[in-house]
């Protein structure tokens, strides 16, 4: 895949963010390349939202480097990020339900015609572009005049993605775009993630669902307790492993202990404990060797060359 | 990055045309008001048909009443679509009319003795300032504009009465027709057209013209899109780069200017200003806007609807006068119209949202 040789668009080196005494994220190092989907997985509290808010300019990092196009950047607001082509689509969308699709699509960046005080909003062009852009993403909208509120959750996410891509997003950060969706709608969104990738966009897809991440992802960054637990290219990762890692080794172990205590000589329960323990083993074989303060480079067995930056 | 539109074949075009006319109409916010205009007119035509409700004379009375309210309702509707209220608009009407009169009144009557146009100019500046005060207070405090402008309603009214009385020891001033520059003002703001015995005010022309201008602005300019966005979801609009605070400020100034225009029209036509003029107009303008399909929560509405709302208002007023029903019932009918309109609009909007 050509993406493997493409230059990194975004890079973080030992990025950390503290809120007072709370360490929200610590030493996050990751690479995002154009034309790829980087999945950011982690349970609640793993630091996903702090990381994306740092990437999208809402927070400024407490420590570490943030690079765009290989150059050190300091973002002070989401607008700074947008100016560099880093667009974020949040779960609670930046969409206005009562406004039509095309008005939403161009809100804040309306194309105009005419001159001086008589410049007017080129609504014809806006409608056309909206329809065409949506079509390019494979979304067949019946009527761009439809209020956004009448669209399904998946369609709304898709409009937001199409808009970001049209306005020049090179990096598209999607915050749990499939979280609140049913299976079918999630499928719709996954399709647009692939479309965006095919158009050369670097997609950062945040989710806690390995079944949504695995089919579309090229790289998987797993966060746990504010740190990078591991970074894997798809070739080195089977979906089962991903599911296991997401389940969380420690939790599984606790669960196994808990069950064992209850089990006594109940054969059924003992069987269940055995299954759990096997799973714990399987998870432990994976890069659970990461030490608490560890840099992600310390898991070289599963990380291909250049995937993780050596000490920045 | 701009994309070449021509290069992409439009696949879904023919399906768009098939969208039903009915559902397209239903999605228009002014539909309710349009139906209302027809219903109210037909109602009074039947009830008061024998008393000349359907006549050029009655029509001119209705339009002459609807026009000033309509001008206010246009500005109030724009502000409401942006998610804010201006309750001070009635006070501003009294304020700006009185400001003009104080500036032009002779010094021996407590005035400044200025010629008309400089007086109008300074009064415009003052009115813009009052609108800006409303807007800035709302933007800075982030408090509901309902509360802020409820406060300024009393402040501006009180100021008008207090200052007028302390300067002129009266609350009503007249005599604009003796001031140099009146002729032009009379042409612009006082012209009447007689049509077989019925007098039509130039206010109607201002009303229709401003409705057209504001509609164009709302539907066909960037600012219009920003107004919808600001009222629809402030944070979302801000995130995509809409200058939300400036939009609100500009609209508060617009409502103040609308009040100024109506005040000037009335001062020229009636030849006097009253410190109490415009009392209650703020509610009438809001009613007109709501009857016209504006949502109290913002993000949805129409200028044409607000203009039609003012028309309904005037028809009810005129209808009650003509039928000879006790005027005391006027407020009951008006409140009824408002409640019915809101229920109807709500129904329409849900219908439109689920098509």
- Tell me, what is the CATH class of chain B? Mainly Alpha
- CATH topology name of the largest domain in chain A: Rossmann fold
Rg of chain B (CA only): 22 Å
Low-confidence stretches of chain B: 1-18
Regarding quaternary structure, what we see is: heterodimer
Which runs of chain A of at least 5 residues are low in confidence (pLDDT < 50)?
287-312
Fold and architecture overview:
The complex is a heterodimer of chains A (312) and B (355). Chain A is an alpha/beta fold. Chain A has two domains: 2-98 and 159-237 and 289-302, P-loop containing nucleotide triphosphate hydrolases (Rossmann fold, 3-Layer(aba) Sandwich); 101-146, no CATH class. Chain A is built from ten helices and twelve strands. In chain A, the strands form three sheets. Chain A has a six-stranded mixed sheet with strand order 6-9-10-3-11-12, sandwiched between helices. Chain A has a four-stranded antiparallel sheet with strand order 2-1-4-5, covered by helices on one side. In chain A, strands 7-8 form a two-stranded antiparallel sheet. In chain A, a hairpin with a 2-residue loop joins strand 1 (10-19) and strand 2 (22-32). The longest helix of chain A has 19 residues, at 267-285. Chain B is mainly α and 355 residues long. Chain B has one domain (29-353): ABC transporter involved in vitamin B12 uptake, BtuC. In chain B, 70% of the residues lie in helices and 4% in strands. Chain B contains 15 helices and four strands. In chain B, the strands form two sheets. In chain B, strands 1-4 form a two-stranded antiparallel sheet. In chain B, helix 4 packs across helix 10 (222-232), helix 4 (56-81) packs antiparallel against helix 14 (303-323) and helix 5 (89-104) crosses helix 12. Chain B is globular, with a radius of gyration of 22 Å. The two termini of chain B are 33 Å apart. Residues 1-18 of chain B have low confidence and may be disordered.
